Structures are given as C-alpha cells and as structure tokens.
Amino acid sequence: MRFEGVWLRYHRGPWVLREVDLDLPAGAVAVLLGRNGTGKSTLLAAAAGLLHPARGRITGRPTHVGMALERFPADQPFTVREYLSHAARMRGLDPTKADSWIERLALGAFIDVRLGQLSKGTAQKVGLAQALLAPPGLLVLDEPAEGLDPTTREELPAIVTEQAEAGATVLASDHLDELTKLPGAHRLHLAEGRVNTESPRP
Fold first, then answer.
1. Which pairs count as long-range contacts for 86-91, CB under 8 Å and 24+ apart, including other chains?
2. Which helix (DSSP H) or strand (DSSP E) does residue 155 occupy?
3. Most buried of 71, 76, 161, 162, CB within 10 angstroms?
4. Domain range holding 6?
5. What is the mean pLDDT of the segment spanning 66-76?
6. Where does the pLDDT of residue 131 fall: very low under 50, low under 70, confident under 90, or very high at 90 and above?
7. Do both 162 and 173 map to the same domain?
C-alpha cells in the first residue's frame, strides 16, 4: 500500500497532515509515534479507508482490513458472544471462528457479559478479536495496548508478528512502546503535519 502526496484534514478545517509519502509493503510493521494531536489517528483512519485524502492518493489497500479502535464502541446491545458471532457472520465466517481468539485473549469469562458492562481493557480485547477474525491484509491498530492486562500486553507483539509473517501490513500507533521494539518495525514520527520515517531496527 502506498501514500502518494497525501494531504489530510476534516471537512474544510486546517490541514492535519501534509504531503505524506509512504510505502507499506505486505508483511511490514509500521508504528506511528508522536504527541497527542499530531495526526496519528487521522493517518490510521485514512489507511483503513475511513477518511479520504483531500489531495494525493492511497493505492494498493488490501481488500480485507482489520481495525481495532483506541476506544472500542461498547455502547451496543450485545454480549461478547453475540457481538463476535455477528462480526464473524458479516465476514462470511462460521461464528465459531471467534473461539480461538476468545481463548487466546482470555475472554471466556466474559462471553455472556454485555459490551457496556466490560472494563476498558476487556472491551479493547473484544475489539482486537473482531479485527483478527478473518486474516487481514491490512491490520490497523490505534493504541492497541491501552488498558490491556499485563498478560495480553505481553502477547500483543507475538500476535502482530504472526500477522505480518502471514503477509499482513500492520500499521499501529503505540505510545506504550509495546510494538516499536519488534525487529524490522518501521518507526514513523509525526510532528507539525509531517511524517518522517526512521530506518527499522534489526
């Protein structure tokens, strides 16, 4: 996937990001770094196709995009089981496809709990599970470690590595520094409306 001279803003407001040029090949892990308000969530939304460039273009977006938001929208009238089953059906999958992620993310004790009754961290795990139900070609993660329990935080880098090794492009913001240390991860620094790429660590 490529960003070619991309300018991003909301409606007719000020520019959030200007002249973004990025090459994100299959299997790459790119981590966005920057202070609050520098455009990390804006760039993620554009990558996922939720925000269209005002100038420039984004090409090569994979057909299937998995996205986990920083704040999972828990104000929905479903239990965890109902939500993930419905998400699987929407992707044309058997509802039992969610079982492996329910187990891996330790959601078994919460499957009959309504989304609105979950803690922030548990709701984040539900959001991560739905993003991974079908193998994504592009995995977009907005602060995925925020609020997670220590065990799941330790598991997160392994999950991201597995997705990248399977061919997914992974684009994430990560102020808790859980993913920036992954071998080969690209670090994208956002400041003053620009994106600067740091060479990946070995």
1. 87/130, 87/133, 88/133, 91/133, 91/134
2. helix 150-165
3. 161
4. 1-64+135-202
5. 87
6. very high
7. yes
